[in-house]
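Appendix C reproduces, verbatim, an entry submitted by the partner laboratory led by Prof. M.T., so that reviewers can inspect both the input and the predicted structure.
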Amino acid sequence: MKLHALDIGIIVAYFVTVILVGLWVSRRGSKDLDSYFLGSKSLPWYLLGVSDASGMFDISGTMWLVSVLFLYGLKSIWLPWVWPTFNQIFLMMFMSAWLRRSNVLTGAQWMQTRFGNDRGGTLAHLSVVFFALVNVIGLLAYAFKGIGKFASGLLPWHFTSATTGVFTDDNIYAMILMGLTSLYAIKGGMVSVVITEVMQFTILTLTALTIGVIAIIKVSPAMIAHNIPDGWMNPFFGWTLKLNWDGILNTANAAIKNDGNEMFSIIFGLMFFKGVLASLAGPAPNYDMQRILATRNPREASLMNGMVTVVLMFPRYMMIAGITVLALAFCMPDLQAQAKPDFEKILPNVLQFIPTGVVGFLLAGLAAAFMSNFAATLNAAPAYVVNDIYKRFINANAGGKKEVAMSRVVSLVFLVIGVGFGIFSKSITEVMMWLVGGLYGGYVLANVLKWNWWRFNGYGYFWGMMAGILSAMLVPESPFFSGFAKMFLGHSVSNTLYLFPFVLGCSAVGCLAGTLLTKPEDDEVLKKFYKTVNPWGCWGPIREKVMAEDRNFKPNFNFVHDMTNVAVGIVWQLSLVALPIYIVLQQWNWAGGITVVLVATSVYMKFNWYDKLEKAS
């Protein structure tokens, strides 16, 4: 695609503005670790919510969502459950409040509140540090693949003619853009990240609405119907997918088969089962957890996660639907001519159909999607190295300025490592499926048990986490395994979700053996945790002791209430996903019905969630 000088000027001006603003506000985030990582817990919940949404509006995920909407039609609205996207509903209903009551800096530090400071607690602490750092490397590799494909397909400069190896256009562009974003993310920490992400999300929202409106104006329902298979418009499915692209785009069938999603009922079941466990485990130790810990109180933590769904879903899917509709209308001849089209590149290929001038703003918005997610991910890594290793085990009195300086060095080191694994990864889907199907499979069980079973101890957590993480690193889609396989075998070794039960089983053995072969945690640690966080679950013996000591304590018996809210909230979230897609497709009957569902679920949550949030203390 050849960009007009006006578009290039808009993009350059955007990059310069964001970097300068990020550097300017960085002074507020450089005093100490609390200011660097959590903005001194002074940022309002709505800014943190917009920031969190901006971080999730990533370019790699958007490219993947466009490709699956193109290939699977409305059945693709279920596929983001692989993350799972509905974890935001669990967070807004109860999990964010539980986490925020702990009043800590990182997820690893939270381990001390649950397991204490003995050897078991220390091992639990170190295992979550290990997970967090492996997760950051995986997310950086994921961002690397997305921004490289995006930039090389759109920007006019070519650095090399190589199509394989380290120095391809994809990789060079990714290194340049990651380097530019790192300038403010490393220097200013949380405050720089949040302020720039609010700016970026404003651009993203305008971008998304613009793309959706352009698609509605340019493409008629008849043009769409001509280029889609039967069943594409229907979100519901049977035992198998039953989408046949023969005669329209034969290579689409091959892509679906390669994804391993033909037995869609099995995939749906695995996604839902894993998703519920992952949601009950609480947020992974990344930028999402940081935003929760950075809120001012438990009430604002819940509101922040509610804000994420409200501001993220509609504009993001307006963009995704608009790009997909433009591709169906105008890119089919090009896709039909390719022997093996890369559906992950649909997004950059579609922008040639956007008017000059508008393209510059759209590209700035899409660049913002990358910068938001990347900056938030990079900001998470040093918190675990500096706060949870250096400060705890090496030098507890290093001083704020020294700790911030060290955090910047750690960010740079992880940037280099993430880029290295990104170079060896084959595709966005490869890295993403390993993260959500493999690595998170090793994370979930230990983290469900830590909230819900009083007998679970630090040793059980450590062995459950390590068994899960190490087994996940051995599955074929792992960027670690895949990188080495590519070096020594010459090819990568497909749907990691099918391996989730195996990874979960390994973790379960570690959890149970580690717990039952060692003594329970000290009663004082457990009582303090239970009284502070007040979760529901299997806490009977500890609950009795707490209530015997404090007759004013009110235990949490809200399991049925919370999970009913979760069920309604998931329907509410799905409505916010499907509505903009049907609007762009101009399917007004579907859009009208979904609007009714959205209004009904919103009213329900107003009375049964919002009105019952705990008051700020």
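Residues 155 and 457 are 53 Å apart (CA to CA). Additional entries are available on request from the coordinating office.
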